[in-house]
């Protein structure tokens, strides 16, 4: 792969059975490499949001977006390479402790502004939120003490609400596509499904 | 009213006149309700695969949606090949399957198969109906999705208890046809300026442009631009027109493949640059700026780098591109093309090519010609003449053996006044030969079956000859083939046979003039390949030229192709 890198996509999808399968099957079938995928509900009933990290060069990602656009349950795709965005990831890390290491481990966790979510005699469980680099650094710091278990959520992302520092080619004159009310698509679909004329 | 009746009412409301299907336990309420809806005709095939291909043949001949139906489990899985075929050839198809009752779903119940899971990658979309209230709406939406944009197959899976449940809602009327998407004037402008500067232009037309045949023809003549039609696009431009160069690709014409290799501007309309068309991608149209007119954005730039993408409907784009046209065919380019076109040879000696030529010469431009998959298919594509769209029906993308005969039945039922001729091989015909019973049952009189019998799985055999040092593994059918005339006779279908060039004309006469559907078996020599041919991995300009249906001395050509493939 030339110029392969992690690229971030957000998808708004109809909350239908198998929609996750459709998306992951599409990636598998076409040989796109999913690095992480997180799904959650949104402020709109019936619409879920996914953040997908695809590893590949620009051409591969563009082809992936076009194929995703053809899926009936995909309402909207946001390509974060064209938009300023914020992203976060959360990890739970269970670290082995001894009476000698306890203080040091807690000190490191504090440096990372991490919270302790479970205290045991032989282990502490930490919650860390941040970007990918911070999480990786935390895990590496804890490794010498003995990591018993970890689980990461995968990255989640939103476009930034302010257009101030966004390159003009994204926004042209007006608003960004990504900030359009997402319900338009959903409502239009629902109306079509009910046979009501689409007024949008 | 029940869910089952609501299904038929919705289909009737959408103008569905014919459904090809096969009943079974989990769809019995639907078949029971069918008796209350005489406005919809059900055609009982002898296998669900036959139903799916017949629905495809219907759709390919008319351009309208085809409908097939099966029960759960094995009935549904038997539709899978037809759905995959329709997906790759962009055929508008609605498949209705029964399923076990909702409370049994997921329990490995009798005749339960997760058909929506199975068909996920081979349908444009699919549904499980979970509430009876949703059933008509989902069926209406499925029809809309199958027909709109780039067409494709949509499956609706209906649990048995929903078929029986009372329904009190409205029966929907058809969705308005979606708006036709017109390409941007900028992209058309860029395409036009490229064409105006072209010295060696060529236009390549695919299956996505079949319904734009009139506009394509006007466009080509206005610009005086030579036209190549892909296997799926045959008929989108009349082959009698002097601008026509034939079919491109693995078994394409010398003129088409050389023209692509030399062209400086290639205008592609409604095609997806399948590997059988392009040959080695980095050797495809190496000197050309490419304009790609295509409705499905995902196809633009998928295989071939596009210089001018034109996203939109082929009909609209062709009409827009016709405006401001100038004649751009230079005398030099014309002379070069004429030289290549003169290298088109017709088979002179007895064999499969000779037989296919003799049969297709007897057809009028209104006849529908279907084919199965294999050497006879490529020969028909090379040798038949295609004057109008939707008169050539074959399985292009999936290459489904067994497709031809049931598809010809579907086409024959869509157009009872038209002769529906199918050319098949001895191998493929036996994959769906049971549909002879469907001919008999419905007294279909306009299907003409021609079996080119060379006692081999000919295309596989050809590849074994070229790429596997003539080790003919599992391709010999000769000792076990039935007497095809007797087989037809068993279903009261008249059969005829020809075994030589001398016998052929009289046999064709008798076969075509028979008032009933009839079968013609043409027994041809075992050992012939289809040529010209671009070996897999070679570029189009490395095609091996010789007459169709004759095997040349391949040693030099194969060595050269192997070298080139290694270089790539």
Automatic annotation (TrEMBL), chain A:
Functional pathway: Amino-acid biosynthesis; L-isoleucine biosynthesis; L-isoleucine from 2-oxobutanoate: step 1/4; Amino-acid biosynthesis; L-valine biosynthesis; L-valine from pyruvate: step 1/4
What keywords were assigned to this record? Amino-acid biosynthesis, Branched-chain amino acid biosynthesis, Transferase
Catalytic activity as recorded in UniProt: 2 pyruvate + H(+) = (2S)-2-acetolactate + CO2
User: Does this entry carry the keyword Translocase?
Assistant: no
What's its EC?
Answer: 2.2.1.6
GO CC terms, sorted: cytosol
Start and end residues of each ACT domain: 8-82
The answer on whether this UniProt entry bears the keyword Amino-acid biosynthesis reads yes
InterPro entries linked to this entry = Acetalactate_synth_ssu, Acetolactate_synth/TF_NikR_C, Acetolactate_synth_ssu_C, ACT-like_dom_sf, ACT_dom, AHAS_ACT, AHAS_small-like_ACT
EC class: transferase
Give the highest taxon in the source lineage.
Bacteria
Q: Which GO terms describe its molecular function?
A: acetolactate synthase activity; acetolactate synthase regulator activity
Quaternary structure?
A: Dimer of large and small chains.
Instruction: Note the NCBIfam families from the entry.
Output: acolac_sm, PRK11895.1
- Name the job this protein performs: Catalyzes the conversion of 2 pyruvate molecules into acetolactate in the first common step of the biosynthetic pathway of the branched-amino acids such as leucine, isoleucine, and valine.
Q: What is the protein name given in its UniProt record?
A: Acetolactate synthase small subunit
UniProtKB/TrEMBL annotation, chain B:
Cofactor(s) essential for the protein: thiamine diphosphate; Mg(2+)
Q: Which SUPFAM superfamilies match?
A: DHS-like NAD/FAD-binding domain, Thiamin diphosphate-binding fold (THDP-binding)
* Any GO BP annotation: isoleucine biosynthetic process
The answer on whether this UniProt entry bears the keyword Magnesium reads yes
Question: Which molecular function GO terms apply here?
Answer: acetolactate synthase activity; flavin adenine dinucleotide binding; magnesium ion binding; thiamine pyrophosphate binding
InterPro entries cross-referenced by the UniProt entry = Acetolactate_synth_lsu (IPR012846), AHAS_TPP (IPR039368), DHS-like_NAD/FAD-binding_dom (IPR029035), THDP-binding (IPR029061), Thiamin_PyroP_enz_cen_dom (IPR012000), Thiamin_PyroP_enz_TPP-bd_dom (IPR012001), TPP-bd_CS (IPR000399), TPP_enz (IPR045229)
**Which cellular component appears as one GO term in the record?**
acetolactate synthase complex
Checking NCBIfam families in the record gives: acolac_lg
Identification of the protein by name: Acetolactate synthase
Q: Which organism is it from?
A: Deinococcus metalli
């Amino acid at each position: 792969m030339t110029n392969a890198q992690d690229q971030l996509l957000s998808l708004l999808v109809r909350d239908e059975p198998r929609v996750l399968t459709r998306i992951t099957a599409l990636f598998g079938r076409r040989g796109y490499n999913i690095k992480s995928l997180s799904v959650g509900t949104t402020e709109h009933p019936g619409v879920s949001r996914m953040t997908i990290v695809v590893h590949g060069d620009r051409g591969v990602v563009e082809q992936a977006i076009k194929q995703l656009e053809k899926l009936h349950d995909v309402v909207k795709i946001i390509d974060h390479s064209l938009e300023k965005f914020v992203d976060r990831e959360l990890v739970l890390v269970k670290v082995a402790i001894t009476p000698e290491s306890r203080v040091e481990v807690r000190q490191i966790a504090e440096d990372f502004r991490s919270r302790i979510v479970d205290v045991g005699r032989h282990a502490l469980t930490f919650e860390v939120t941040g970007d990918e680099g911070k999480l990786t650094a935390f895990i590496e710091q804890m490794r010498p003490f003995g990591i018993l278990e970890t689980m990461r959520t995968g990255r989640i992302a939103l476009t930034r609400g302010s257009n101030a520092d966004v390159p003009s080619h994204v926004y042209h004159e007006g608003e960004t596509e990504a900030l359009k009310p997402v319900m338009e698509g959903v409502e239009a679909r629902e109306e079509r499904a009910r046979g009501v004329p689409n007024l949008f | 009213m029940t869910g089952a009746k609501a299904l038929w009412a919705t289909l009737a409301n959408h103008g569905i006149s014919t459904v090809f299907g096969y009943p079974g336990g989990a769809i019995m309420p639907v078949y029971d309700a069918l008796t209350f809806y005489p406005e919809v005709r059900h055609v009982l095939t002898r296998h669900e695969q036959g139903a799916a291909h017949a629905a495809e043949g219907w759709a390919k001949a008319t351009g309208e949606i085809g409908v097939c139906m099966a029960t759960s489990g094995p009935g549904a899985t038997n539709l899978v090949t037809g759905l995959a075929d329709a997906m790759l050839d962009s055929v508008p198809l609605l498949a209705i399957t029964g399923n076990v009752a909702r409370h049994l779903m997921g329990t490995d119940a009798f005749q339960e198969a997760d058909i929506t899971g199975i068909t996920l990658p081979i349908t444009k979309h699919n549904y499980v109906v979970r509430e009876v209230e949703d059933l008509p709406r989902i069926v209406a939406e499925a029809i809309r999705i199958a027909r709109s944009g780039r067409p494709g197959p949509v499956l609706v899976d209906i649990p048995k208890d929903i078929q029986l449940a009372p329904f009190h809602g409205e029966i929907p009327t058809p969705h308005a046809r979606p708006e036709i998407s017109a390409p941007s004037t900028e992209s058309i402008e860029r395409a036009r300026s490229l064409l105006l500067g072209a010295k060696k232009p060529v236009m390549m037309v695919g299956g996505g442009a079949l319904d734009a045949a009139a506009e394509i023809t006007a466009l080509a003549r206005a610009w005086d631009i030579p036209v190549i039609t892909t296997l799926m696009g045959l008929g989108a431009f009349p082959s009698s027109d002097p601008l026509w160069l034939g079919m491109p690709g693995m078994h394409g014409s010398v003129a088409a493949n050389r023209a692509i290799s030399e062209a400086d501007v290639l205008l592609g309309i409604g095609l997806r640059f399948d590997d059988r068309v392009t040959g080695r991608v980095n050797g495809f149209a190496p000197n050309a700026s490419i304009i790609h007119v295509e409705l499905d954005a995902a196809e633009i730039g998928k295989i071939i780098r596009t210089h001018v993408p034109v996203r939109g409907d082929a009909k609209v784009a062709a009409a827009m591109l016709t405006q401001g046209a100038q004649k751009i065919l230079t005398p030099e380019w014309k002379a070069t093309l004429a030289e290549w076109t003169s290298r088109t040879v017709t088979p002179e000696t007895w064999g499969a090519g000779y037989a296919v030529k003799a049969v297709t010469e007897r057809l009028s431009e209104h006849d529908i010609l279907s084919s199965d998959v294999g050497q006879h298919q490529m020969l028909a594509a090379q040798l038949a003449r295609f004057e109008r769209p939707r008169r050539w029906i074959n399985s292009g993308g999936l290459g489904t053996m067994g497709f031809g005969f049931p598809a010809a039945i579907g086409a024959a039922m869509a157009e009872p006044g038209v002769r529906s001729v199918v050319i098949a091989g001895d191998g493929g015909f036996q994959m769906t030969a049971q549909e002879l019973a469907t001919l008999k049952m419905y007294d279909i009189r306009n299907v003409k079956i021609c079996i080119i019998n060379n006692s081999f799985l000919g295309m596989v055999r050809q590849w074994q000859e070229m790429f596997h040092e003539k080790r003919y593994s599992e391709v010999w059918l000769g000792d076990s083939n039935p007497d095809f005339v007797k087989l037809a006779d068993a279903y009261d279908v008249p059969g005829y046979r020809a075994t030589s060039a001398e016998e052929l004309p009289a046999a064709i006469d008798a076969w075509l003039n028979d008032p009933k559907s009839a079968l013609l078996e043409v027994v041809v020599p075992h050992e012939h390949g289809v040529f010209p041919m671009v070996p897999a991995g070679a570029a189009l300009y490395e095609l091996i030229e010789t007459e169709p249906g004759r095997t040349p001395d391949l040693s030099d050509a194969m060595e050269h192709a192997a070298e080139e493939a290694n270089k790539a």
